[in-house]
Amino acid sequence: MIAAALAAGSRLICGASVRWHCDPSETKQRIYFGNHSSHLDFVMIWSALPPRLRRSARPVAGRDYWERGAVRRYLAGRVFRAVLIERGKTGDKSGAQAAIEQMAREMGDLYSLIVFPEGTRSSNGLVGPFKSGLYHLSQLRPDVELVPVYLENLNRILPKGESLPVPMMSRVTFGPAFDANGGDKAEFLLKAREALMQLRDAR
User: Fold this and answer.
1) CA-to-CA distance for 172 and 148, rounded, in angstroms?
2) Cα angle vertex 53, ends 48, 54, to 5°?
3) In terms of residue numbers, what domain contains 35?
4) Is there a contact between 153 and 161 (Cβ–Cβ < 8 Å)?
5) What value does the mean pLDDT take over residues 76-83?
6) What is the Cα–Cα distance from 148 to 40, expressed in whole angstroms?
7) What CATH number does the domain containing 29 carry?
8) Into how many domains does the chain fold?
9) What residues form DSSP beta bridges with 33?
10) pLDDT digit string (tens) for 118-177?
């Protein structure tokens, strides 16, 4: 009940319209990857999913933020069932590898994930280069579907550094499943970002 109310409230505040370019009834495990400009991002992707898919979709988020305070801990653990990861220092390869292995493990044979390949929030709404995590995760879980999700206007509804959202219209666009067709890490990340960017003007 709390999850349903939170999903409805989020869509109302953000005035979100949702567009699908893949099958919204598909129950196959997926990795939804989106652009990142606001703390609302994973909430909006999660709330835009049909209830059946929402129940098995787990956002990936930083432990340091979502375990700060009782309300955040409750939402992350009991409502979103988030996969909380330790955010290590830049260049900490062992920490990054452990986080990727944790994500793959937490998916099991049931759950989908919501991830943000940029690794950090954009301050200007532009989509930055993708870090390598999505590539390594896809290598560990080649059996799941990769679905790009473009979020529009959330950087204005809850900008970086702000704590209260400003109600206005937004859009969530789910793209067709992404297929890298082989290639090395650099090519994969470039194609994944392009698949996401193409959704900006999709109708």
Assistant:
1) 10
2) 55
3) 2-10+19-201
4) no
5) 91
6) 17
7) 3.40.1130.10
8) 1
9) 115, 148
10) 987 776 767 889 999 999 999 999 999 999 999 887 666 666 665 666 566 778 899 999
